[in-house]
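Worked Example 4.2. Consider the chain below.
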Amino acid sequence: MLYGLARTRAIVQFGRPGEVTETRALGEQALTLFESHLQGREWLTLEQPGLADVACYPYVALAPEGGFDLTPLEAVRRWLERVAALPGWVGMPGLYPGPQRQ
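Applying the procedure from the previous section yields the following structure tokens:
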């Protein structure tokens, strides 16, 4: 389902071929799953940040570039902010929740 987020972004941002309606539906499913899974949790799989958090973060953080609205996804937004607050985190343009730290 993360494919839907990445593929939609590639179509919207870079003009890649594909059917945005189909990929957007997959992306919405992924975000709904993330929101549900993160209810009452701080991290995806462990009691501390793990590989799953690091691997999934860019797909979700760049989702707004594909036209996905993260505003109603409170648990997802809090998770993105926790990942961005990790020591040594370096952002890049386009990432939610904002500019990279120095």
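Residues 20-38 form the longest helix (19 residues). The domain at 2-84 is CATH 1.20.1050.10 (Glutathione S-transferase Yfyf (Class Pi); Chain A, domain 2). Compare this with Example 4.1 before moving on.
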